[in-house]
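Annotated sample (chain length 638).
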Amino acid sequence: MLGGLITVAFTAANVYLGLKVGLTFATSIPAAVISMAVLRLFKSSSIFENNIVQTVASAAGTLAAIIFVLPGLVIVGWWHGFPYWMTMAATGLGGILGVMFSVPLRRALVVNSDLPYPEGRAAAEVLLVGDQSRGGDLESRQGLIAITVNSVASAAFFALSQTRLAVDEAAVYFRVGPSSTGISASLSMALVGVGHLVGLSVGMAMFVGILIGWGILVPWLTAASPSTASAQQAALAVFHTDLRFFGAGVIGVAALWTFSRILGPIVSGLRSAMAASRARGVHGHVLPLVERDLPVQIVGAVVAVALGLIALLLWEFIAGGVLAAHAPVLIAATVMFVLVAGVVIASITGYMAGLIGASNSPVSGVGILAVIAAALMLIAVVGRSTNPEQSSAMIAYALFATGIVFGIATISNDNLQDLKTGQLVGATPWRQQVALVFGVIFGALVIPPVLGLLNTAYGFAGTPGSGPNALAAPQAALISALAQGMLGGHLNLRMIEYGALAGALLIAADALLGRARRMRLPPLAIGLGIYLPMGATLPVVIGSLLGYFYDRWADRRREPEFARRMGVLMATGMIVGESLFGVLYAGIVVLSGQSTPFAVVGDGFATPALIGGAVVFCILIGLLYRRTMTMVARPSDV
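Output written by the structure step:
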């Protein structure tokens, strides 16, 4: 019940925030903190109950990402609102399939993998420190102090940035001859903390992506298309219209390569799960609690039922329309598309979450590739149409099918992070998997009315009659435009194709580095560095460097493991503070109806806010690292 209440509140806030500014916040760690505060009132509460609350509520931060697709049906004019049962079913069925598809991935990507899972580790540290500090353990009390101090600092700076006395992103754009480019970094302690946790290899790979994107492609493309716009406008225009599609191409090829490499472990994990199920049934073997997944038979049955319900949902969607004549073949092809694309995407997004965390995982990039694949499937089954009515129906159908696949992507992106947390605290996997199904149900129930309310109150930019306060819904608008371009025959896929070629070259380069026994540069991480805004990736790069030098320092201490653990807790605190205040701030934005409710100064203060904010941010980061190193050197003084 506690997990459900948190899920409903966080989902509503995430839906609004995602439609307004294109961002959602991770809910797993804030839910863990709230759970510990509430369940601490009960003497019998345990770390496993807090883990279940966190697992249920984590669905709120990810399932809400369905808003990156479904509002497209309103933007293209197919829907004028959000039919409750159809929206709820599409969201819920996709989410449940995401849980089921990620069950066999646990052994391959969590148990038998060295992926960092930054947010999963951070959530586990929060749960472990909170639980052990109740028993008076000295190290845990020191860890709790470390998390608390860094959380307060992180939340305080986030609050300061929302007053606009300090910027939340430091950015400088400039021209070099006819070229335009820029440098930007979000002043986010949470992203620095993520960088500390993911490690140097991922951080340097993302830096290579930044260099390719902003050091080569943006200057080249802006020079090729001279503009009278400012350097910032020219660079950002190229980023949105060209660079993101190039990055999506790199991600697509790198993700498929990654999937081919983890396919063997996935099949092995599925076989071992089936063998464990047979041993339990025939021989009465008892698996350790930490190895008990949902039985394969139950997973298969749930998948079969969900696909059957999806077929009925698709029939309802096209019944009586111009696509009804193609219904049997089209629905069969779509169900197969959902199954195959869902398995592949669950693996890819799960791997990406393990690589850089669920919050920074570019699920919208996966959505771009999914809607292109859905459009190609429609063209193969129905063919291109010159009939405007049939073209509109095909665009809407492609968006609806993509929405279901997107639900799979968002939940599998989240579920493996939760299962990593569970592994670290000794939880039972099948209980977490069931808990996340409940989280999906709670989220699916609340998303349609919130979408309907926001559509009625504000509308979406680009829809007929939308006013000045219409919500931007940037990802939904982009994916809708892609569907219209693919099925209307006027989409330029040039940058995606170039990105795919670059992805193949980066895979080869990484393989050569591996043979030379040099530091690897994961191609998928390079693709993320290209696709994501530099403001979101550069802090991760900086955090990875800080973490590398801190760990080298820690290895020279008398107790290196304690020193490293304090570093992890410091980074965890940076993530926790900003996440918690992000939840509070989202609620205030929703209740006030203002996009900047904390602002105390206007645009005229931008330059002092940029300089002062950057200085304060760097000083705070330095002080937090210095304090942690002092605490490690003299633990008895804390």
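Annotation: The beta strands are 169-176, 179-186.
Annotation: The chain has a mean pLDDT of 82.
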